[in-house]
UniProtKB/TrEMBL annotation:
Name of the protein this chain belongs to: Purine nucleoside phosphorylase
Reactions accelerated catalytically: inosine + phosphate = alpha-D-ribose 1-phosphate + hypoxanthine; 2'-deoxyinosine + phosphate = 2-deoxy-alpha-D-ribose 1-phosphate + hypoxanthine; guanosine + phosphate = alpha-D-ribose 1-phosphate + guanine; 2'-deoxyguanosine + phosphate = 2-deoxy-alpha-D-ribose 1-phosphate + guanine
NCBIfam families tied to this protein: PNPH (TIGR01700), PNPH-PUNA-XAPA (TIGR01697), PRK08202.1 (NF006054)
UniProt-listed Enzyme Commission number(s): 2.4.2.1
Name of the encoding gene: pnp4a
Annotated ranges, domain Nucleoside phosphorylase: 28-281
Organism: Clupea harengus (Atlantic herring)
Quaternary structure annotation from Swiss-Prot or TrEMBL: Homotrimer.
Annotated metabolic or biological route of this protein: Purine metabolism; purine nucleoside salvage
Length: 291
């Protein structure tokens, strides 16, 4: 990674201090809204919101369907901060920039990060509109040396060689499953492995076949770097993928995916996702960090 891309501890601290001076909210939970899932932030009460462009040191989002706002507020008595729009590698951001907000959240006192994304499914038992609780991920860019933790390690955040086993909190996953059962969502909820690819193009048929063979359930262009950085600094992680399309795996298949259809499915499930996330947050015991 180029040295001008290195961000130092004081840079995160400056942004965190600025935010703390602008809002009374002291969030324990951060929610990252994926493509078309920005409405998750609408459920927050007593909102303070900041455009990314107005936050010192913050990167800027460029994707359609991503609002580019940081929203603080109250969700069923729990203080949250919500990213309406995230940063992607394919926008040209370095991975330090993509994950910049995560370390800022850590410095704000956040203990739990909820990541959401829109993803394509490779698992034949999945349907469009299914919600996949992320059990684990494959960080494909990481295989090629594209990792947000590259460069000198910042010990104040975490260790040089952080473990990634069990990174998606088992207790929160179980809790989410229970909520889905209670709410009648069980028939369209899955649990599976998310794989990150760089994008911005969707997968070729041969690439889709490869991912399928590897046992990937859903594929998308985000999430893994944020989760790696959250895990590095000891935050608890919960992740959801909304299945917005089935990845084309056969040369006989004439369908193809586009960003508009992705946004359409997001809209269809927006209320369900909002209910699930709200209920999950309300059931979290965020004081002693054991849900
Ligand atoms: C697909 O999803 C089902 C249901 O969650 C799961 O049992 C199965 O292991 C997954 N993978 C494949 C390759 O079918």
């Amino acid at each position: 990674m180029h040295s001008k891309d290195q961000i130092c501890y004081e840079d995160y601290q400056q942004t965190a201090d600025w935010l703390l001076s602008q809002t009374q909210h002291r969030p324990k939970v951060a929610i990252i809204c994926g493509s078309g899932l920005g409405m998750l932030a609408d459920a927050l009460k007593c909102q303070d919101s900041f455009k990314y462009a107005d936050i010192p040191g913050f990167p800027q989002s460029t994707v359609q369907g991503h609002a580019g706002k940081l929203v603080f507020g109250d969700l069923k008595g729990k203080t949250c901060v919500c990213m309406q729009g995230r940063f992607h590698m394919y926008e040209g951001h370095s991975l330090c920039k993509v994950t910049f907000p995560i370390r800022v959240f850590k410095l704000l006192g956040v203990e739990t990060v909820i990541v959401t994304n829109a993803a394509g499914s490779l698992n034949d038992t999945y349907h469009c509109g299914d919600i996949m609780i992320i059990k684990d991920h494959i960080n494909f860019p990481g295989f090629a040396g594209l990792n947000p933790l590259n460069g000198p390690n910042e010990e104040r955040f975490g260790p040089r060689f952080p473990p990634m086993s069990g990174i998606y909190d088992k207790h929160l996953r179980q809790m989410a499953f229970d909520i889905c059962k209670t709410m009648g969502f069980a028939q369209f909820v899955q649990e599976g492995v998310y794989c990150m690819v760089g994008g911005p193009n969707f997968e070729s048929i041969a690439e889709a076949g490869l991912l399928h063979k590897l046992g990937v359930d859903a594929v998308g262009m985000s999430t893994a770097p944020e989760v790696v950085v959250a895990g590095h600094c000891g935050m608890r992680v919960f992740g959801l993928s909304l299945i917005t399309n089935k990845v084309v795996k056969s040369y006989e298949d004439t369908e193809s995916v586009n960003h508009e259809s992705v946004l359409e499915v997001s809209k269809m499930r927006s209320e369900t996702l909002q209910t699930l996330v709200t209920e999950l947050v309300s059931r979290m015991d965020i004081n002693n960090n054991t849900a």
